[in-house]
Amino acid sequence: PNPFNHILKTITCFLFLAVNVHQRELWARTLVAVEMSPGGATPPHAAPRDSGRDMDEVLSKDENDIGEDQVGGNQGDAPVTNSGGAEEAQQVEEEEGRPWYLSGGTRWPMPAARSRKTGRRIARLWPHEDPGSDRITNQLMFVPPATSGSEKLKKILIYNGLGSWAPLKPGRDTFTQSRCPVDTCTITANKAEAADADAILYKDHFVNPGHTRPPRQVWILYFLECPYHTQHVKYNDVFNWTATYRRDSDIVAPYERWAYYDERVKQNMRMDHNYAANKTKKVAWFVSNCGARNRRLQYAHELQKHISVDIFGACGTKKCPRSTASKCFDMLDRDYKFYLAFENSNCKDYITEKFFVNGLGKL
């Protein structure tokens, strides 16, 4: 079996659990506990910034020569073509029930199916295998072929520490307690273990660990922010995998992602709730960084000529004290029909977390 597919699965599970599950807890805490002083603490998922912080960022806890098998899958796991479509449909048929990673999920992946004709795996895990997809579901529902129970655990080093990943802890519990389908990995933040780690994850910034990298050690760069607000890495051919919001990353890791809670219910469902009912105001925006490079403030001012837009914070005339963040969100939910969730920069595939938290958080 390919050990790198094994690591891919556990890294995907880890990022999903750490970001898409635990981040909701962090955001919820923010609504009642965040200190709203100017230039508040750097959020757990963001790299340090030089520019001013947005009010909405604070409210939402803002804002070398390795083989081909490590970068794009084992050579025995070569890209799958459409020629095996019928066989693929037969072996990977859609099952009813929510997948394991959704609340109440009961559907668990089986060990990876392989084509009877070519012997290659059917699941499309890497960008070149399915360029039109983010492959998040494929990776979360992928389990490598069964391996010996005596195989040693794969060690994943979180090189910049676990402080920003709270409440995650070192060890294997992250995988076993969350019932990740592949749980034979362990997490460490001890840099002294760098030389014998199976994978090293660099979150937000990269520091060369200084050891000679073993030929089968995987280095992963994990960024949630767009390039304007992250470190410029000046090294070539350093990272085996990328984990970012971009759809061409090896592991696509956005802040959140839309997925049908019940696959049997599609877009033709009847809307049974009028979200505009009893709301008396049109548009709101929380913002304190008035100099964003994409001129979002100027856009909002132009929009005000056509519809009522209430701008809260340093860039507007409305106030909602940062010390009462939860009340601000209640006000949005109660009074406003629309919320402006602007990115601070326009980058490919980047969607600000404010879209999910400020805009959709109470839906």
TrEMBL record:
The Fucosyltransferase N-terminal domain, residue ranges: 153-255
Key words of the record: Glycoprotein, Glycosyltransferase, Golgi apparatus, Membrane, Signal, Signal-anchor, Transferase, Transmembrane, Transmembrane helix
Stretches for region Disordered: 64-116
Record-level Gene Ontology MF annotations: fucosyltransferase activity
Name by which UniProt lists this protein: Fucosyltransferase
Cross-referenced InterPro entries: Glyco_tran_10_C (IPR055270), Glyco_tran_10_N (IPR031481), Glyco_trans_10 (IPR001503), GT10-like_C_sf (IPR038577)
Coiled-coil region list: none
